[in-house]
Write the structure tokens for this entry.
Amino acid sequence: MNKRLTCIECPRGCVLSIEIENGKIVSLKGNECPKGEKYAAAEVENPLRILTSAVLAEGLDLKMVAVRTDKPIPKAKLFAAMEEIKKIRLSHPVRCGEVIAENFLGLGVRLLATRRALKES
């Protein structure tokens, strides 16, 4: 299988041509620096993403509170993470950076508030 990616590791934005067999890279072309090889391997073998979303708030000045994971999580877990986020309801004031969930999804990452929310006036 062949895949093309644009590397985002440096400002060059190299277009990578990748040949993949059994989930592993067998050929890589187009990278102008070693970062492209590392990026391609990560994207093909274990893609990770920072998750950003919002959780429902009840009795606060905001209806939704923006959240994000403090570290990247496996791309394959994004839908499960969103299902878990749908279950969260905040009813106490939160500050920016406050931990909403420790060890989110058992992945060793924290879900953090990225905006403050105060009690409704």
